[in-house]
Amino acid sequence: MSTDASRKANRNGNANGLMPPPTTAAARQKLRLRLNPSADHKPESYEDMQLEFSPLLFSSLERYLPPAVLNSSRDAKFQVMRNILTRYSPDGERTRVSINPSLL
User: Fold this and answer.
1) Which of 51, 85, 91 lies closest to 65, judged by CA?
2) Residue 10 within a domain
3) Degrees (nearest 5) of the Cα angle 19, 20, 21?
4) How many CB atoms lie within 10 A of CB 51?
5) Which of 1, 32, 64, 91 has the highest local Cβ count within 10 Å?
6) In angstroms, what CA-CA distances link 62 with 17, 96, 103?
7) What are the recorded GO MF terms, alphabetically (predicted)?
8) What is the pLDDT of residue 28?
9) How far is 80 from 62, CA to CA, in rounded Å?
10) Burial 9-47 (b: 16+ CB within 10 A, else e)
11) Residue 22 or 15, more confident
12) pLDDT value for 91
């Protein structure tokens, strides 16, 4: 009987016992990249920043940002793009570029 009571206490209303945070889907939807680049947007230059990725990569990726982020400051766009690149690039690639900047 005590195990039934503890199971009921741990339930949160979802069939599999897990409930995602309510803001996760909204945050992901807001920061979703475009499928096609914005043709009329002129990307900013990231040449003057210390980056672990090529500055040209940031300029190219900027054209795929959603409109809400595209109209933000350069630093805000940089943070969003850096988070995306960090999440999807292998650690070895970041290390290789930061050790040997001539690969840029």
Assistant:
1) 85
2) no
3) 120
4) 19
5) 64
6) 39, 23, 21
7) L-ascorbic acid binding
8) 47
9) 9
10) eeeeeeeeeeeeeeeeeeeeeeeeeeeeeeeeeebeebe
11) 15
12) 72
Please enumerate in sequence order all residues whose Cβ is within 8 A of that of 63, keeping only pairs 6 or more positions apart, or say none: 37, 38, 41, 43
Q: Which domain holds residue 33?
A: 23-103
Asked if 34 contacts 19 with a C-beta cutoff of 8 angstroms, the reply is no
Is there a domain that residue 68 lies in?
yes
CA distance 51 to 85: 11
Domain total in the chain:
1
Residue with tokens 């990569």: 57
Residue 25 predicted with pLDDT over 60: no
pLDDT single digits (tens) 85-99: 888 887 776 555 556
